[in-house]
Amino acid sequence: MRIVTALVTMAAPLALVMAPNAHGAECPDVELIFARGTSEPAGAGRVGQALANQLAPQLGGRSLGVYGVNYPATYDFLAAADGAADATNRIAAMSQRCPSTRYVLGGYSQGAAVVDMLVGIPPLGDKVGDVGSAPPLPASLASRVAAVAVFGNPSAKFGRPVSIATTPFAGKGIDLCADGDPICSKGRNPFAHTSYEKTALVGQAAGFVSAML
Q1: Domain with 83 in it: what CATH number?
Q2: What is the reported pLDDT for 17?
Q3: Cis peptide before 99 (omega within 30 of 0)
Q4: Which contacts qualify for 142-146: CB closer than 8 Å, 24 or more apart?
Q5: 181 is catalytic
Q6: In this predicted model, what pLDDT tens digit does every residue of 144-158 receive, in sequence order?
Q7: pTM for the full model?
Q8: What is the span of the domain harbouring residue 88?
Q9: Please, are residues 37 and 111 in contact by the beta-carbon 8 Å criterion?
């Protein structure tokens, strides 16, 4: 297995550097595009890295790249739309360079809202309308996405998990919500939202994703 990540500043998107494989240099067989949660430092975040760590051994020797969505991840939640735009641009650019690479979209907390936009789900259900949203991933790019996995998704609290997304994402999504997490459910335990990387939910997501690849 191979997992390659890169660390950069907030000013630039993550660069993927991989050993050559069947697709040529810098072309992983699978790329996990993950949007981190609020206030996490640039990169895929702790949940994204945990998912990558559990997914890689299940890929049967295929290479895995990890791209951390470049967006502010601050308490200015309207800026989450920047993350959706960055993820779209990443898939568009990679698809030109690496036509055989397959993609997995993932996100945690505010990052899950980024993914909601990409699959055409309002980040806060129907409560806020189009405020802070971005266009969904174009169909030509969406067809390259094999699976979607989100954790602590705000939209799930309003009955709109990614698992209900329609074509071209129908059947490709898994939406994980920890018991008692007030962000994605009617629970009242704020601590349930802060430790997804330590739960069995990451393994559940990895198993779902690997079965889709």
Answers
A1: 3.40.50.1820
A2: 34
A3: no
A4: 142/168, 142/169, 143/168, 144/91, 144/95, 144/101, 144/102, 144/103, 145/91, 145/102, 145/103, 145/104, 145/105, 145/169, 145/172, 146/30, 146/102, 146/103, 146/104, 146/172, 146/209, 146/212, 146/213
A5: yes
A6: 999 999 999 999 999
A7: 0.87
A8: 2-212
A9: yes
Q: Cα(123)–Cα(114) distance, rounded to whole angstroms?
A: 7
8 A C-beta contact, residue 180 and residue 188: yes
pLDDT in tens, 151-203: 999 999 999 999 999 999 999 999 999 999 999 999 999 999 999 999 999 99
140 belongs to the catalytic site: no
Question: Given 63, 109, 155, 163, which residue is catalytic?
Answer: 109
What is the tally of structural domains in the chain? 1
SS3 category, 104: strand
Which residue in the list 29, 155, 181, 185 is annotated as catalytic? 181
